[in-house]
Specification:
Blueprint: H1 10-18, E1 23-27, H2 31-40, E2 44-47, H3 51-54, H4 66-79, E3 84-88, H5 98-110, E4 116-119, H6 126-134, E5 139-144, H7 147-152, H8 160-163, H9 169-185, E6 189-193, H10 197-206, E7 211-213, E8 223-227, H11 228-232, H12 249-265
Parallel strand pairs: 1-2, 1-8, 2-3, 3-4, 4-5, 5-6, 6-7, 7-8
């Protein structure tokens, strides 16, 4: 990990793997959360298309547009003075082909200020990874059971956390081959979603680039990325959940609003 004031770079993230140090990231979409995460010492912030489901009430991440993700990317970039910034490419641009992905990538890098671009289901599009890498765009390649592939396979988006982590020895070889292919295509890091300990460890050992995981990840990977909303317990679903959070913002927020309503109804003077 870089020193507290030293900017994190992609080579630093890769060196952490070689040194056996875990990289830590959060998925965030706004300036204040980015500032808090940076103060806490995270190495990177990932702007995920999960913003649609977690903040905007969409049913799945496929509904998020490039302009919307760019708004989030710009906000995070303004808050990030030290951490690496990774931004998701919304669904559709990679699927339309290399030219479409390159045009969207230019906007994410130039307008959004991203340091890396995360491509969902990247193993299905190695030619896009190669082309974007050749164009100077660092690719954070997501593979495994990813948000977009889960939807395509008919797995409910809200169930992904428990739907994966089933990649055992039987599937490990295919996943190792995919990881090597993405590394050869030029990816600077891998986001192995729903890895499980067997395939996850096998992939980590098979490639030289960092293998980081969110859903279904664990200590067998080179690092972890966690949704800020999950860390903070911020969202209606965390009012009654067994998911590990570090703070129950949801309950605290409801209690605060209840106190506000009571003070207003009681005619109490509220300062500020």
């Amino acid at each position: 990990m870089a020193s507290e004031d030293s900017p994190v770079t992609i080579p630093m993230l890769q060196q952490m793997k070689r040194d056996g140090k875990k990289s830590a990231g959060v998925v965030a979409w706004d300036y204040p959360t980015t500032r808090f995460a940076e103060m806490a010492g995270v190495d990177f912030v990932s702007i995920g298309d999960s913003v649609g489901a977690n903040l905007w009430g969409h049913s799945n991440p496929l509904q998020v547009s490039l302009d919307e993700i760019l708004t989030c990317c710009k906000a995070v970039r303004r808050g990030a003075t030290r951490v690496l910034v990774s931004c998701d490419m919304p669904y559709g641009y990679v699927q339309e082909g290399v030219d479409s992905a390159l045009k969207a990538g230019v906007r994410i890098m130039k307008e959004g200020g991203a340091d890396m671009i995360k491509l969902d289901a990247a193993a299905d599009f190695p030619e896009v990874v190669k082309a974007m890498t050749k164009a100077g765009m660092p690719i954070f390649a997501q593979f495994g059971l990813t948000p977009q592939t889960a939807i395509r396979f008919g797995i409910p988006y809200s169930s992904q956390n428990s739907a994966g982590a089933q990649a055992t020895a039987e599937a490990a070889k295919k996943l190792v081959d995919e990881a090597k292919m993405l590394e050869d295509a030029g990816a600077v890091a891998l986001d192995f979603t729903n890895s499980g300990p067997v395939a996850g460890q096998a992939v980590v050992e098979a490639v030289k680039i960092p293998v980081i995981g969110g859903f279904g990840g664990g200590p067998w990977l080179d690092g972890r990325v966690r949704l800020a909303q999950t860390v903070l317990g911020y969202g209606e679903k965390w009012l009654d959940t067994k998911t590990a959070t570090y703070f129950n913002t949801a309950q605290g927020t409801v209690d605060a609003f209840r106190a506000l309503v009571k003070d207003i109804r009681d005619g109490k003077q509220i300062l500020g």
